[in-house]
Structures are given as C-alpha cells and as structure tokens.
Design brief:
alpha/beta; TIM Barrel; two-stranded antiparallel sheet; 39% helix; 14% strand; globular
Amino acid sequence: MSVTIGSHVDAEDPVAGARARGADIVQIMISDPTSWKKPVISYPGGAAALRDAAEQAGLPMVVHAPYVINVASTNNRIRIPSRKLLQQTVDAAAGIGAIGVVVHGGHVTGNDDPAVGFDNWRKAVQNLDQSVPIFIENTAGGQHAMARTLEALEQLWDSISKAEGFDRVGFCLDTCHAHAAGLGLHGLVGRVKAITGRIDLVHANDSRDDAGSGADRHANLGRGRADPDGIVEVVATGGAPAIVETPGEVQDQAEDIAWLRERL
C-alpha cells in the first residue's frame, strides 16, 4: 500500500527538513502560531524560491494556520482578526505552491449558542478567497468546540455546505485529537466520511493521555496511549497523505515515518 507520508518541519528549509526525515510531504508554519502577525516566508529568496525548490524536489507542502485563529468566535475582537489572518495565510500558502491550509475548527464559549459558531464558519467560508483549499481539523477538547465530536462536525458541515466556496473546503483528521475526544479510531474514517464526504489530510499522532481526556498532547507513534492499530487503520483507509506532528528532534520524526511505513 502506497501512502504519501511526511512530517511537520521547520519553514526555514522544508526541502532539507524532508530529506533529513525521509518525508514525501511536509507541513510548515509560516507565521508565529500564537500571534496575530502576518505570515512571512523566511526561506532565502522568498516565496518564489521556496515554491521552485519544492517543485524541483517533488515535495508537496501543507501550511498549518496559526492556533489563535477562531472564526467561530462570537467575539468580534477574535473572529474578525481570525478571518483576516486566515486569508493572509491562504494567500501566502498559494504563493509558495502549498496544496492546502490546515485550520482548527475553533469554538464558542459556554454562554454562546453553538449554532452561532457554526454560522460564523459559514460566513467565513463564504467570504474567503480560497486560492488554495482549507482543511478544517478536528480538535481534542472543549465542550463548545465546532469539530470535536461527530455530532458537532455534522452540524458544522451542514452549515458550511450552504456557503459559496464550500467545494474548496476539505477535512484534516488528527488521530491524537480523535483519541482525546473519545471518538475511537477503528472505523473512524468511514464515520467521518459519512459526514464530510472527504478526508484531505491525516495527522498521524499518538497521544500522551487516555481516550476521552480532551488533552491535545502528542506522543511519538507506538509510545503513547492511542491504539497503534487504530492509528495505522486511519492512515491506511483515509485515502489522503499523512503528516506526523510528533515530539523530539529530526530522528524522532524519521522513526515515526518509518514506523508507519513498516505497518502499511
């Protein structure tokens, strides 16, 4: 079975990062994940040089949007900057030739009607110029998250399906997040695709914590609390490239990529 497998790497030189890990695909951050600052391409020669280098290496790239983005929020001071930063990230990702932008599903607060959050997502999709697709990622915790449970995911997809540009919205399935949310990995691909119709990327991560913990703490593959056979099943049946976002140095991610390849 041939699955494209890679790793999250440093944006300074993604091609070198891929080579060091034996990765077929890479994911990078092009801005501080915890700030509202506009993306900056740090690669020598800028966006065009990075795009050319990746193309010459035959290396697909995915961009992960900053964690601060929460387009579901009912707070204008969060939602409006979130939309702006997501658009800036999509534009920058297009400039380097990335195949998509991963963005977390976000949440509302306990005082909010979740329906407002789902509708805010619809408005965000409606107003987003998707020069590359966005891949909405399931999240690990939060009672008022937009993409933690399958029930919430169904409501989210129902809402955004009404937006112009919905056909450009994909889904990223994270195995650590799914485990932490208590979803159960066996058969999960089928349950997700019954809702979204698609999986565009898999984040293949083990979990430091128990199932249902709600904790977003990744572990190296086969060393955490998630079912290793379940992780492999998601990667094998997802029909999408897989990215490891696991702790440690270059060798740790190289070993995780090898771990997956051996079991596939």
